[in-house]
Design brief:
The protein has helices spanning 3-32, 37-50, 60-83, 100-111, 121-124, 127-157, 167-193, 225-234, 255-279, 283-310, 313-318, 341-354, 369-380, 391-411, 424-450, 452-455, 463-477, 492-522, 538-554, 557-571; strands at residues 203-206, 217-220, 416-417, 420-421. It is 64% helix and 2% strand.
Length: 575
């Protein structure tokens, strides 16, 4: 880690803290329904039209069915939009109908907040499909994640009740009073930085390579990019308008826009930590969770940047990587934008995979083996290091429940967390929530490396090809969406396999989380005593970090050894 790298990291974390603290206050008010009177008056007609009301709270099973039905309908709508794209307006290049398997994969991807893209956006999706299908789901999938964590908040804060809130009210308020205003402001800022926002036809331009004897023409895609870019980052969605995602100059043109996009990814997840402390009545609880997340995040950054700065020893030995520029000297610049460099590209990679976003400003497939392993590990931890909006915090709280259970076993007391006893029922649900994604990742990877259709997508044989498949299943099941793009995944086999991983990776966790929320809400909240294990101090932070690392990562150690670890060791063998 160079001084400039530490400086960028310090700037990022300081700015994040200053921005997320006041946002946490607003998030707590949203979760508790403490809105200004004028907002309540504005939303009242909408709720009457929908046949619901803020005081009509739901039991956890009804809340869960509402979540599942709403998102299943979203899959159908996005699928039909893609299949009918050829006859819809706002299709500047006359782009055709998307294939059934790709349309299904994309629909599931955007509804589950994964935003995995097996296609090139500018040559596949028309403007209407991007806006009405993909961008709308960017809002709704993000709102779903926040609604679920709000329900879990209420489960911890409640005192023996059978209800955890109203999903329709939650998703409406989160969308209208949080995501839309933030996205509007951020989109305007991005336009000011140079991100495009228009409905123009694609532009044909003459390149600088043209001569009097040979005219070179390049097609420049246009579109309403800034509006989708804003919610892509704030909602930790990650789906790019263009195939190059945030490495494209029309999506991420400047160093400042790059910093703002990184901050936007972590803004709501960090704010939710502060909101959690306020809702449960002890702000120290939110600080403890945030501290655990931050420590693991800093460790990941401190691992990836030196790995990328070190570069490839075999290339260095050939003498072809010597001082090409101050940015590249001694480092791995393959697949990175020179306007960002190694430090900003590596930091972005950790942020986007820690936060379940999946947006990229560099090619992760071109990272060094250990550098590429860091984003993979951040996903394999369960996307709990800040994580997606809502999903990261409820995932971390699941690990917190497991941590207090382990602490209870060590000291011989019935485990409690925030005054709620953690018993056999909660532990069974916790185990389900933690194990579902490793099962999907490892079983899916095994199927892909055994099936002929799975092996057909590998362009790089050996350890790196295995890493590409492992990364793809890790990304899908943990709802991240980034990729080692050397894998040819836009095939019926991978489109269906990854869609299954994305759906069950999302809702296979949400259902037990909501069941836990319902179980906790029904319990009495016990007062703290002298024997209560404190869950707000350094000891709990260390225990929580240890639980995440041991339980979340140990499942993947053998597969990591077969992929990036073997590839790293191969770099140090003689050519």
């Amino acid at each position: 880690m160079t001084n400039s790298a530490w400086g960028l990291l310090a700037l990022f974390l300081t700015t994040l803290l200053m921005a997320s603290w006041p946002l946490g206050i607003w998030l707590a008010r949203l979760a508790s329904g403490q809105l200004p009177a004028w907002m309540l008056r504005l939303e009242a007609p909408l709720f009457r039209l929908a046949g619901t009301a803020p005081d009509q709270s739901m039991p956890w099973k009804q809340y869960t069915w509402a979540v599942l039905a709403f998102n299943a309908l979203g899959v159908l709508v996005v699928f039909l939009l893609q299949r009918s794209q050829a006859v819809l307006p706002l299709n500047p290049e006359g782009l055709g109908t998307v294939s059934v398997d790709s349309a299904f994969n994309t629909a599931v991807s955007f509804v589950t907040n994964t935003n995995w893209q097996g296609y090139a956006g500018e040559s596949t999706m028309g403007y209407l499909t991007q806006m009405l299908g993909l961008a709308v789901q960017n809002f709704l999938s993000a709102a779903t994640g926040i609604a679920v964590v709000f329900a879990l908040f209420r489960g911890f804060a409640a005192k023996s009740t059978a209800v955890i809130g109203n999903f329709w009210v939650d998703i409406t308020r989160i969308t209208v009073w949080l995501l839309v205003p933030l996205s509007l402001v951020f989109a305007i800022v991005l336009v000011g930085q140079g991100v495009i926002q228009n409905f123009d036809a694609y532009q044909q331009v003459t390149t600088l390579e043209s001569t009097s004897a040979s005219v070179q023409i390049q097609t420049l895609p246009m579109g309403p990019v800034a509006s989708q870019e804003a919610i892509k980052m704030l909602g930790t969605n990650g789906g790019g308008f263009f195939n190059a995602n945030s490495a494209h100059p029309y999506e991420n043109p400047t160093a400042l826009s790059n910093l703002l996009q990184m901050l936007a990814i972590f803004l709501i997840p960090a704010g939710l930590c502060f909101a959690f402390g306020r809702v449960v009545g002890d702000q120290r609880q939110g600080w403890a969770v945030l501290a655990a997340m931050t420590v693991m995040f800093v460790l990941a950054v401190a691992a990836i940047i030196p790995a990328e700065q070190a570069g490839n020893p075999q290339i260095t030995a050939l003498g072809v990587d010597q001082a090409a520029s101050s940015l590249q000297s001694g480092g791995n610049m393959e697949g990175k934008e020179t306007r960002f460099g190694i430090t900003a590209s590596s930091l972005f990679a950790v942020i986007t995979t820690a936060a379940s976003c999946g947006a990229v400003n560099a090619m992760h497939d071109s990272f060094t083996p250990l550098g590429g392993m860091v984003p993979m590990v951040m996903m394999q931890l369960g996307e709990v290091v800040f994580g997606g909006v809502g999903t990261g915090l409820y995932g971390m709280l699941i690990f917190a429940i497991l941590a207090v259970f382990i602490a209870g076993l060590m000291i011989g007391r019935t485990p409690e967390y925030l005054g709620k006893k953690i018993e056999a029922h909660e532990m069974k649900l916790t185990s389900m929530a933690i194990l579902v994604t490793p099962i999907l990742v490892l079983a899916g990877t095994a199927i892909a490396v055994m099936a002929g259709a799975g092996k057909a997508g590998i362009a790089n044989p050996g350890a790196h090809g295995f890493s590409e498949i492992l990364y793809a299943l890790t990304s899908a099941a943990n709802n991240n969406g980034s990729a080692f793009a050397g894998l040819s995944a836009n095939t019926p086999f991978y489109n269906y396999l990854l869609a299954i991983a994305m759906w069950f990776g999302r809702f296979g966790v949400i259902v037990p989380v909501l069941a836990i929320a319902g179980a906790l809400a029904a319990k009495k909240r016990l007062p703290a005593t002298a024997g209560t294990f404190p869950t707000h101090g350094p000891l709990f932070v260390v225990l929580l970090i240890g639980t995440v690392l041991l339980v979340g990562l140990l499942n993947y150690v053998p597969s990591l050894a077969l992929g990036p670890v073997v590839e790293h060791l191969m770099l140090w063998t003689k050519p």
